[in-house]
């Protein structure tokens, strides 16, 4: 068998033998919260075409903050933009995250804080590089 063909077969056969770990409740909550955050940023970008978006509650999600449950409920209950498809899509994801957090994964979740203000005005994350002085 020629070398390029053998390496191609090996490459194609390799990934099927490696099975990724199934998603856990925690990983599902984390990925869904990131997905919602990205979708909310997209909503904010379309504020010029949909002025109602500016009246939606802020949606900074920290699944380790107990106040996030109230934040999710407030966002879903918001009456603003009720006919905008993109907003409804985000609200559906928020409902899903709330259900996962409050029902299915309740035992797996650990709240590290209950600082509701942190969800309104999140502290920006900065990266400080080490000083390479000799």
TrEMBL record:
Keyword terms of this UniProt record: Signal
Signal peptide: 1-20
Record flagged with keyword Signal: yes
Keyword rRNA processing: no
InterPro entries found in the cross-reference section: CYTL1
Gene Ontology BP annotations: positive regulation of transcription by RNA polymerase II
Annotated Pfam families: CYTL1 (PF15153)
Protein name (Swiss-Prot/TrEMBL): Cytokine-like protein 1
The organism of origin for this protein: Orycteropus afer afer
Taxonomy of the source species: Eukaryota, Metazoa, Chordata, Craniata, Vertebrata
Gene: CYTL1
């Amino acid at each position: 068998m020629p070398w390029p063909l053998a390496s191609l077969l090996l490459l194609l056969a390799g990934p099927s033998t490696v099975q990724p770990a199934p998603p856990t409740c925690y990983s599902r909550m984390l990925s869904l919260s990131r997905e919602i955050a990205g979708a909310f940023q997209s909503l904010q970008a379309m504020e010029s075409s949909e002025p109602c978006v500016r009246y939606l509650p802020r949606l900074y999600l920290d699944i380790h903050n107990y106040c996030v449950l109230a934040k999710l409920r407030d966002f879903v209950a918001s009456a603003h933009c009720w006919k905008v498809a993109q907003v409804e899509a985000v609200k559906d994801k928020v409902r899903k995250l709330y259900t996962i957090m409050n029902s299915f994964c309740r035992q797996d979740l650990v709240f590290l804080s209950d600082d509701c203000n942190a969800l309104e005005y999140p502290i920006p994350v900065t990266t400080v590089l080490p000083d390479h002085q000799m």
